């Protein structure tokens, strides 16, 4: 047992259920989110409020952040013209969206909405710096956020027919008699049923026929439209979905087709497995996947109802840890350390954090979305980048004056206490957990202090070695996983 000073009023810690909900469904534990959860009556009440995000009072800074990076939502044709005139590069627009997204996730109180926006953005991934889709990418983000907690069917239709997707997967290139098959294929392989469904190359062609006609005026006005003259007619059959496809206007058929795919049992299996992998365990049992899939279909692909079911399963409270991605770690660290920013100037939080974490959100180059498995995330390079993020977000290295950090003394619960008690308090405040012998040992190694050392605000543990102390906790599995 870790011995703490008798006069130390131990900082409260969340229950196992509270911590699991905040780490898995949210953007990480903070004292403020724990207070909000308890004010809502506990994990279930908190989740209910989060699933109705308009009922959650937003942090005032989010309104300010929404006014930053104003070029995000400039009309696509204007963005293209500015790029052609070399006034702003494709990468600069992609960076704006990535930085804005990361700041929003740090400061938003609507954390489940942010989490699900991230989840679906990975499932329906479009690189923000794609050579053709990028002018529409920020608008695509607006669409994902608006549908992230609705019905999967509606989200699928909105994503598949969004001009960013039509550009990214080349559907705009389809012409009558020669449909481009790229989107028809990825719709099946990545967005709905998956290869396990056993679709054939003939079905891929049918999928492409169904989608033909949906186009974008690239690179002129960038307006999205349906053009019957670009639609390829002819009978189609995809996994039992059949249509004579005789009319030049295939819009109604497309809607029926996407609805069919959204409700297909293979799609339910694929979505269930991805949700289970994200929120429960990296290797979910087939039984758990089957139960989630059945619920998904029973509630007409309602995302909120599916999430409520997932957190009610015994497996959700299992002991498995899920490794945080680089951006997730950076966001959780900035949140729990109370880092504040007032601008987006060079060397501000929004400017530096993506570079420090080594990953700009939405820039994975392939349509399958950035990897989230432990084997891809637990690497020496990733660990070094995370340590760098932790160090700089505690110490404040290299940030402009508009980025502020809590002082070491502000983390002291009393004016003087034993070192082991300080470690316990910090573990409770930052990790949401009591200290352990292993944590204490690592903190001793980082600072050279002994368990019984009396720590005051003038002690070198606070004045010179505080960053080492906190980073020892942030580098732990308890923070690097969720």
CA-CA gap between termini: 24 Å
- DSSP strand (E) fraction? under 5%
Averaging pLDDT over every residue, what do you get? 95
Q: Helix/strand-derived class?
A: mainly alpha
Unreliable stretches, pLDDT < 50, 5 or more residues?
Answer: 1-6
Largest sheet: 2 strands, antiparallel
Sum this structure up briefly.
With 482 residues, the chain is mostly helical.
Account of the 3D structure:
With 482 residues, the chain is mostly helical. It has a domain at 265-317. Helix content is 53%, strand content 5%. The chain has 25 helices and eight strands. The strands form four sheets. Strands 1-2 form a two-stranded antiparallel sheet. Strands 3-4 form a two-stranded antiparallel ribbon. It has a two-stranded antiparallel ribbon with strand order 5-6. A hairpin with a 2-residue loop joins strand 3 (236-238) and strand 4 (241-243). Helix 6 (90-107) runs parallel beside helix 8 (134-147), helix 6 (90-107) crosses helix 18 (349-357) and helix 20 crosses helix 24. The radius of gyration is 25 Å and the shape is globular. The two termini are 24 Å apart. The model is unreliable at 1-6 (pLDDT under 50).
Secondary structure layout:
Elements: H1 16-24, H2 31-39, H3 43-50, H4 60-66, H5 76-84, H6 90-107, H7 111-123, H8 134-147, H9 152-160, H10 163-168, H11 182-191, H12 201-211, E1 214-216, E2 224-226, E3 236-238, E4 241-243, H13 251-262, H14 265-279, H15 286-298, H16 303-312, H17 326-336, E5 340-341, H18 349-357, H19 374-377, H20 380-395, E6 403-404, E7 416-418, H21 419-431, H22 437-447, E8 454-456, H23 460-463, H24 466-474, H25 477-480
Antiparallel strand pairs: 1-2, 3-4, 5-6, 7-8
Helix pairs in contact: 2-3, 4-6, 6-8, 6-17, 6-18, 7-8, 8-9, 9-13, 11-12, 14-15, 17-20, 20-24, 21-24, 22-24
């Amino acid at each position: 047992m870790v011995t703490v000073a008798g006069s130390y009023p131990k900082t409260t810690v969340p229950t196992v259920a509270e911590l699991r909900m905040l780490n898995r469904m949210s953007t990480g534990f903070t004292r403020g989110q724990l207070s909000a959860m308890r004010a809502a009556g506990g994990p279930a009440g908190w989740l209910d409020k989060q699933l109705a995000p308009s009922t959650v009072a937003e942090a005032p800074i989010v309104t300010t952040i929404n006014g930053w990076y104003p070029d995000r939502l400039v009309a696509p044709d204007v963005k293209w013209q500015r790029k052609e005139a070399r006034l702003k590069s494709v990468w600069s627009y992609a960076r704006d969206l990535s930085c804005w997204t990361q700041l929003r996730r740090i400061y938003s109180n609507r954390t489940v909405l942010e989490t699900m926006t991230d989840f679906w953005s990975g499932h329906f991934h479009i690189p923000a710096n794609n050579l053709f889709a990028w002018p529409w990418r920020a608008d695509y983000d607006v669409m994902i956020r608006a549908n992230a907690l609705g019905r999967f069917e509606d989200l699928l239709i909105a994503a598949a027919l969004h001009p960013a997707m039509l550009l990214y997967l080349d559907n705009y290139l389809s012409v009558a008699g020669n449909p481009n098959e790229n989107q028809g294929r990825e719709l099946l392989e990545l967005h709905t049923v998956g290869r396990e469904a056993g679709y054939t190359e003939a079905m891929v062609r049918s999928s492409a026929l169904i989608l033909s006609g949906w186009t974008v005026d690239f690179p002129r006005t960038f307006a999205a439209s349906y053009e019957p003259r670009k639609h390829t007619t002819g009978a189609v059959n995809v996994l039992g979905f059949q249509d004579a496809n005789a009319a030049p206007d295939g819009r109604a058929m497309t809607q029926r087709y996407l609805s069919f795919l959204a409700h297909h049992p293979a799609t339910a299996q694929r979505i269930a497995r991805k949700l289970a992998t994200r929120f429960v365990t990296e290797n979910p049992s087939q039984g758990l996947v089957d139960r989630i899939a059945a619920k998904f279909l029973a509630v007409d692909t309602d995302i909120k109802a599916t999430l409520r079911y997932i957190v009610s399963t015994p497996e959700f409270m299992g002991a498995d840890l899920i490794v945080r991605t680089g951006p997730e770690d950076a966001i959780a660290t900035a949140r729990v350390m109370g880092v504040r920013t007032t601008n987006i100037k060079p060397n501000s939080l929004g400017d530096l954090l993506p570079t420090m974490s080594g990953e700009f959100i939405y820039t994975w180059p392939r349509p399958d979305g950035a990897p989230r498995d432990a084997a891809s995330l637990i690497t020496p390079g990733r660990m070094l980048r995370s340590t760098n993020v932790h160090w700089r977000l505690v110490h404040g290295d290299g940030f402009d004056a508009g980025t502020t950090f809590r002082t070491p003394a502000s983390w002291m619960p009393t004016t003087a206490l034993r070192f082991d008690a300080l470690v316990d308090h910090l573990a409770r405040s930052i990790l949401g957990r009591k200290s352990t012998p292993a944590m204490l040992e690592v903190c001793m190694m980082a600072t050279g202090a002994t368990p019984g050392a009396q720590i005051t605000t003038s002690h070198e543990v606070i004045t010179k070695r505080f960053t080492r102390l906190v980073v020892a906790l942030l580098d732990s599995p308890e923070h690097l996983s969720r």
